[in-house]
Design goal:
This protein has helices at 12-24, 37-46, 51-63, 80-88; strands spanning 33-35, 67-69, 75-78. It has 89 residues and is mainly alpha-helical. The chain has a 3-stranded antiparallel sheet. α1 (12-24) packs across α2 and α1 packs across α3 (51-63).
Length: 89
C-alpha cells in the first residue's frame, strides 16, 4: 500500500495564487516585465511543484486577469487585479 500525500498545487487556483506571490516578490526588469524563470525555478525546485501544476496555475492566473504572458513566453506581467488579490490575503 502506497501512502500518497496531497499535492499543495494540484488545484490550479492555489498554484495561481502562489505564482502571484512569487511574481510580486520579484523586481520587474523593464516595463513591469518579470522573466518567467524568476517564478518558474522557485515554483518547481524550491516549492516542489510540477510542470503541469505550473502550467495550470499560469493558465488560471491569465484567465482570471491576474497575469499577462508575453506571446514569446519569456516573461509575464503582474496585472492590477493580481496586486489587489495579494493585498486581500
Amino acid at each position: 500500500m502506497k501512502h500518497v500525500t496531497e499535492r499543495p498545487f494540484a488545484d490550479p487556483q492555489a498554484a495561481a495564487r502562489k505564482l502571484l506571490e512569487l511574481a510580486a516578490s520579484v523586481e520587474p526588469v523593464q516595463d513591469g516585465r518579470i522573466h518567467i524563470e524568476k517564478i518558474n525555478y522557485p515554483f518547481l525546485y524550491t516549492l516542489k511543484g510540477s510542470g503541469p501544476e505550473f502550467g495550470a496555475g499560469t493558465r488560471c492566473a491569465i484567465e482570471k486577469g491576474w497575469l499577462e504572458l508575453h506571446e514569446s513566453g519569456t516573461y509575464v506581467r503582474l496585472l492590477a487585479p493580481g496586486n489587489n488579490l495579494m493585498a486581500l490575503r
